[in-house]
Amino acid sequence: MSGEITYVIGHKNPDTDSICSAIALAELKVLEGAENVVAARAGDINPQTSFILDYFNIQPPRYLPNVYPKASDIMTVDVINVSEETPLLKVMEIMREERVRFVPVLDPEGRPRGILTLMDLAKKYIVKIEAESAREVKTSLKNIIETLGGTAILDYMGTSELTLSIFVGAMAEESFRAILEWENPPECAIVVGDRSGIQSAAIEKGVGLLIVTGGFTVKDELIEEARKKRVTILSSPLDSATTALLLRLSTPAYRLASPEFETVLPDEPVEDIKFKVAGANGVVVLDADGMMLGVITKSNLLKPSGTNLVLVDHNELSQAVDGADRVNIQEVVDHHRIGNFHSPTPIPFICEPVGSTSTLVSELYRRKGAAIKKETAGLLLGGVLSDTVILKSPTTTERDREAVRWLEERSGLDHKAFGSEIFAATSSLKKRGPEAVVNGDYKVFETKGRKFGVGQVETIGFDEFHEEKERLVKELEKVREKKGLKLSALLVTDIVMGTSLLLAVGEKEVIYKLGYPRVEEGVYELKNVLSRKKQVVPHILSVFNGIY
Q1: Sign of dihedral through CA atoms 160, 163, 167, 168?
Q2: What are phi and psi of 34, to 5 degrees?
Q3: N or C: which end of the chain has fewer CB within 10 A?
Q4: What is the SS3 string spanning 27-54?
Q5: Pick from 249, 243, 248, 244: nearest CA to 150
Q6: Can you say how many angstroms the Cα of residue 477 is from the centroid of all Cα atoms in its chain?
Q7: pLDDT digits (tens, 9 = 90+) for 176-214
Q8: In this structure, is residue 479 part of a structural domain?
Q9: How many other C-beta atoms can be found within 10 angstroms of the C-beta atom of residue 423?
């Protein structure tokens, strides 16, 4: 589909593994020939990830607050439109040939002056003619010539637009002269065949426009007299009845276009504009300067979004970028439990028990024999070291160790030295502040309709944690209230000692049944615990399942 784009994206509050694996996998797909594939992120970059990106001078992925389908995703870009001066007859021909129900009428700069629909033409033009036999037409000589396919013999109208009263010279000359006595001749358009008497009377009275029908010629003496009276003469190849009818259809489109029409901006969510589309023939999409970008009709609402996702480091919609359930999820590369994700068609789904998604992405490079840049290898190495806590986490597998060896060779880095740099540079809780510490790597889980959240942060020693505890508790309470959680917790991991403390707030029954050794109010000791995924979340899930 034209205009499609694929985002390789991790979970909300992305950690280092999420960002690094997204960048590397997007690069791999481009190497394989995929088009419009972009690495993205669903949240802010944490300090650890920033350190690694800066280390390799790599820009963060594009930030996507959501992927809800927008007006720009479904709008029709190649819009059938007309200029404001287009004759109504031409508009009707375009609508019939293109099989459209409405057309935007644009000014010379591309801004819509109004919308013309078939119903507008019927109500404002055909009904009016039949009911009132209206003679008045607002038009220009250029439009008349285009509509009739005629030829100007004398032109004193120029480019100006005039209001003319149409008369067909189909009566006796005396009757015709009597009619003109009651009219303002310069504002009259006379339609007549080869009746020289009527032609002469019209010129004598100084009418604004004389249209000679049937392709007949005008005598030279009459043309000379018309010059003196500054009467515009036009030759029409059509008969008088047809000429009179089509003359009314020479009116410029903007004269009949409705200036009242629905508009939206390109970034407006489709869900929010459905009601506008439902009550209109179409909605015009405008940019900030009022220029038309496209239109949306009811049929456009059925068009699938051109946004595709490749999920990395997660497979649960509760952790995915907002709107993920409204777009096409093409692929998953993950190392967590399989959650509530569903797809309407089969997709590649890699979900394997290794310590890091970056390990899985590095294996894809190896399996496909793809060349990997030095910086990309360094990113993936950082992702593995971060998620496995320099290979100390119980989630670490032999595949992770093998990936680290392979990535060391291609990045030119020693994993121990690089890992120590990463954690030493970003271990200060006080510098980061409570909001960044709690939300930097915070994930929400759900079971039996109840939700809990657990963040994780790595430190060197627990001294700063005790100093910052009260501020961290307040932030956990904020998150709990905002997300409607039964439990909100932060796993603080000392990577040197290989142990953790759990700071938790929540409902009394849940807190009581956590079962961890309590150090002080709300603080629990988790000896030899490094992994939230493997050692903490399964335990809390079992607690919730036992309570609820």
Answers
A1: positive
A2: -70, 145
A3: N
A4: HHHHHCCCCCEEEEECCCCCHHHHHHHH
A5: 243
A6: 35
A7: 888 888 788 999 999 999 998 999 999 999 999 999 999
A8: yes
A9: 20
Q: Same domain for 384 and 327?
A: yes
Interatomic CA distance for residues 151 and 294, integer angstroms: 37
Nearest to 20 by CA among 313, 240, 260, 279: 313
Cβ atoms of 338 and 35 within 8 Å: the answer is: no
Q: Which residues of 260-274 are buried (b: 16+ CB within 10 A; e: fewer)?
A: ebbebeeebbbeebe
Q: Largest Cα–Cα distance of the chain, in whole Å?
A: 116
Place of tokens 């007299």: 225
C-beta of residue 72 within 8 angstroms of C-beta of residue 64: no
Task: Report which of 70, 133, 26, 63 is spatially closest to residue 365, judged by C-alpha positions.
Answer: 26
Kindly state whether residues 123 and 169 are assigned to the same domain.
Answer: yes
- The boundaries of the domain holding residue 316 are 5-67+306-425
Binning pLDDT at 50, 70 and 90, where does residue 126 land? low
CATH code (residue 206): 3.40.1390.20
Domain count, the chain: 3
Which letter does DSSP use for residue 70 in this model? Answer: B
Q: What is the Cα–Cα distance from 361 to 19, expressed in whole angstroms?
A: 12
pTM of the model: 0.69
In terms of domains, do 99 and 208 share one? yes
The Cα-based distances of 426 to 429, 431, 471, 501, 522 in angstroms read 8, 9, 19, 18, 25
Residues near 76 by Cβ (< 8 Å), separated by ≥ 6?
294, 295, 296, 297, 300
Which tokens belong to 505?
């707030």
Edge-to-edge, what's the strand order for the sheet holding 102-106?
82-83, 102-106, 112-117
213 plus 234 within the same structural domain: yes
415 & 519 share domain: no
**Within-domain flag for 519:** yes
Residues 146 and 43 in one domain: no
- DSSP-derived secondary structure for 151-167: EEEE--STT-EEEEEEE
Q: Helical H runs in 41-182?
A: 47-55, 71-74, 88-98, 118-121, 127-132, 141-148, 173-181
How much is the average pLDDT of 58-82? 93
The pair of three-digit structure tokens given for residue 335, joined into one six-digit string: 């190392």
**Cα separation, 158 vs 11, whole angstroms:** 66
How many residues are given for the chain? 548
Measured torsion, CA atoms of residues 70, 285, 120, 105, in degrees rounded to the nearest 10: -160
